[in-house]
Amino acid sequence: MRYAWRVCSVTSLGLVLIGIAGSTLNVALPSVVRHFRAGPFESGWILLSFLLVNTATLVFFGRVADLVGRREVYLAGFALFTAASLLAGFAPGVWFLVAMRVVQAVGAAMILANGTVIITDAFPPDRLSQGMGVYIGTLSVAQLAGPTLGGLIAETAGWQWIFWVNVPAGIVALAWGAMTLRRMPRGPRQPVDALGNALVFAALSALLLALSEAGSAGLTAPVVIAGAAVFAVLAPVIVLVERRAAHPVLDPRLFGGRLLACANLASFCNAMARASLILLAALYFQAARGVDAFTAGLGVLPVPVGMALASPVTGALGRRVSPYALAVGGALMSAAGLAALALTAGAGTPYWAIGVGLFVAGCGSGAFLTGNTTHVMQALPGGSLGVVNGFRLMVMNVGVVLSVGLALSVLAASVGPSLGAQVYAGTLSELSPVGVERLMDGFARAYTVLCGVALLGAALSALARSRD
């Protein structure tokens, strides 16, 4: 078990690195937007470009790792992510920054596609839930430190250090991984499904473009209609192509059994429900309460605290309680927290009421992630763990991509283009009573939509408990 826990420390460090990189930027986004004088479209793509590219390449790098070795791909991901972080801090314009976020996303995909599989290989089946609980709990630690760190850096050192802080951490992670991870056997040589990857990337790009523009341009805007149409056309094409592919990037067999199908769909719903939670809360504190980025970072701490507490507890319970039962309970807790936030959205709501909703939602996310991930990995067929885990993460990331786009679109549709631009930049001041009412209504609607998605995830988790 000593080697297993050393492996867990390596993979956990990688998860912390990526988690902090994302959560710090969520809080510091208004500072970046003001520096580049970016509009809502560019602001959205600073976040969404990472999610899109990361989503589209997870399965690809899972397959590559199966072929050339997980250790090699995993360590290369650290190197690429670190280099992109260094260059992002020197960005002369917003689109160069978006480009570096794309490179970061590729490196992160190489790390994420292999971290869970490396842990699964290192731990015996009866101890896997414990290792997974610690692994997922470290993401909560990253989210715990990230908002506060992001707010502090943005207010003191400047937004560039949001990216530069990743450089020394990435170097340490690369060195520790190289010293710890053993070389793993490679799988049989198989071709990569280039056509499938290209189609998935194009379909997700079109869908995301439609979502990101819907709030500001309207549902009838040509770009929104075109994006939705491209996605609608490509979706059935992907199904047909992947059914005929010898080694598909999206293996239809993954949807054949109820357990894996429902578990992955539940993971998709839970990712949608939780992904925008910290972003919406940070925007709320800065736009509605008028606080700075550092104070907003402190305000969202109940979410990662809840996740950090729930993840290891759920991992310990996984040996005695069905992980899927824990996943159902976690999804219901997430829904309860989001419902509380929707009901209490208001400019004068006391912080303790908001904090309770954030904490409950965080606990639910931690419980769900640990329970769901453990049972999905235990149910995986042997031989292609990298591909199947990459698919699992891709499904989750699709939920994240849609969540950010959907939540921001719902918010922007409620407040209008001019007010929406001020929300992104955190520069609201002296709002009229009507403006305040529109803003609060937008936050309430966004949380209500996410609550409904969380409830759907709970129902799917319940179905996933039954085997074929």
From TrEMBL:
Q: Name one GO cellular component term.
A: plasma membrane
A GO molecular function annotation here is:
transmembrane transporter activity
Task: Tell me the InterPro entries matching this sequence.
Answer: MFS, MFS_dom, MFS_trans_sf
Q: Which PROSITE patterns match?
A: MFS
Its keywords, alphabetically, are: Cell membrane, Membrane, Transmembrane, Transmembrane helix, Transport
Q: Give all residue intervals belonging to the Major facilitator superfamily (MFS) profile domain.
A: 7-468
| Subcellular localization, as worded in the UniProt entry | Cell membrane
Residues folding into a coiled coil are: none
Reply yes or no: does the keyword Signal apply: no
Q: Which PANTHER family match?
A: BLR6921 PROTEIN, MAJOR FACILITATOR SUPERFAMILY MULTIDRUG TRANSPORTER MFSC
State what protein this is by name: MFS transporter
| Species | Nonomuraea montanisoli
